[in-house]
Design a protein that fits this description.
single chain, 9 helices, globular
């Protein structure tokens, strides 16, 4: 360049739905491998494949639309191939079946993309597995706040971005967006239902898939799930 200007930094590709959910839920204060995070990430991958029309609902069974299509995203394509090679399973079963593989693939993808940073910890002379932390510490909280604004705001659900709506609906299902003191919980549940409807507006079949994914995630949440900031 002749004008002395520095070249613009390359833009990162948009995050997939499972990657966004993984970052939103990431909390360095508690091990991210435990609890419901792998299932949440898996549900996000299933929802994105359904949204793209690559997985379709066949009487409650997650079914590949064909044998050849792909997304170009190795995480999503890996799950799609797993579904193709496995016997028929309901959506709810796929939320938990080998969910750790999808979670690990998303974690590695986020690390390669500069969203997470791996740093080994040494304890008593042993080297345990790497501990992953956000490359930018405020990103998980910012994503949660963005989701909260959509959940608790007054903007009509019908005008929300469909992918933002999906993030909120799945995050709510595992208690990642706890109600503030004095909040109308019934109103929040209605709002989550409205956002699910927005996410599925272009495809009623996606609404049925979301119902299954939300039910599967809700069933994994402890009765007194700890709130996250």
């Amino acid at each position: 360049m002749t004008d002395g200007a520095h070249p613009a930094a390359p833009r990162r590709p948009p995050l997939s739905l499972p990657a966004r959910l993984s970052l939103l839920a990431w909390d360095t204060a508690r091990p991210p491998h435990g609890g419901v995070l792998p299932r949440l990430v898996r549900a996000g991958a299933l929802a994105e494949l359904a949204q793209r029309g690559l997985l379709v609902d066949d009487h409650g069974i997650a079914t590949p639309a064909d044998l050849d299509s792909s997304t170009g995203d190795p995480v999503l394509d890996g799950l799609l191939e797993l579904v193709r090679e496995s016997g028929p399973r309901p959506w709810r079963a796929w939320v938990g079946a080998w969910a750790g593989y999808t979670f690990t693939a998303v974690r590695d993808q986020l690390t390669a993309g500069g969203w997470l940073r791996a740093g080994p910890r040494r304890a008593l002379g042993f080297l345990p597995p790497a501990r992953y932390t956000p490359a930018r510490a405020g990103v998980p909280a910012a994503l949660r706040e963005r989701a909260r604004r959509l959940l608790d705001g007054t903007r009509p659900a019908a005008t929300a971005d469909a992918r933002d709506a999906l993030v909120v609906v799945l995050a709510v299902a595992v208690g990642l967006l706890p109600a503030p003191p004095g909040a109308d919980r019934a109103a929040r549940e209605r709002r989550a239902d409205e956002l699910a409807g927005r996410a599925a507006a272009a495809d009623p079949a996606l609404g049925r898939v979301l119902d299954e994914l939300r039910a599967a995630l809700s069933a994994t949440v402890p009765a007194a799930a700890p709130a996250r900031g």
